[in-house]
Amino acid sequence: MLRDIVAIRGGGEVGTAIAHKMQRSGFKVFIIENDTPISIRRTVAYAQAVFQGEMTVQGIKGIKVNEAEEIMEAWERKEIPVIIDSECNILREIPVDVLVDAIMARKNIGTNRDMAAITIATGPGFTAGVDVDIVIETRKGHDLGRLIFEGTAEPETEIPGESEGVDSNKVINTPVEGNIKTYADIGDMVKKGQIVAEINGHKILAQNSGIVRGIIQNGSSVWKGLKVVEIDSEVSPEQCYRLSQRSRDIAGGVLEAVMYLKHEKDLNND
Question: Count of CB atoms within 10 A of residue 150's CB?
């Protein structure tokens, strides 16, 4: 019998949007993270609870926990627990009904169909019907949020931000690896050519003027090609603290997939 317990691997913006929507829809949700999560839109990422202890996104608090008992206590407070558990050992203590891989790593790093009665993955790197039950399309465009029952999601492009529908000049991918030092924060107004970050002496300059919509946490270890800054002239500072349409569309696809599979597999609540 399904008890509507949902585990989400990854607490970035997409995983956060999924957690937010699933909790509002009556599910018990917790997020599984690693000890050094990378999130560019940190103001809308429950992954930040790993560093801060807690993180509130659009009225719902995420709280860092260490064990199964604390997860259940957080549910009593209507909070979303975030646990550091790269190996997903918590699933042995809390058998989940739904597992969603929202790591957005462009590859499968360990999710399989044996982990829950219903398994869903977001974006490329998974084959529906093999790795998971359903894959959700994450590439912005006509098919965003589409349920894929066989095959894979569209691959990411090599152009920074394009797959997310963001103009390439709004996104900065690091040309080098190392530890990032940031000189701007989310919500700041910056001008084209302004230094917004530095990695091992390599200065990262704003490619356009606008609001810093996302930036990797200061001091993070980054790798070559990672998106580290997003600057948008079309958003307000307030919108930096709200989930994007893209993430909400993906979350809607996940919710649809869960409800469909509950009926398809004849999994009902007690």
Answer: 10
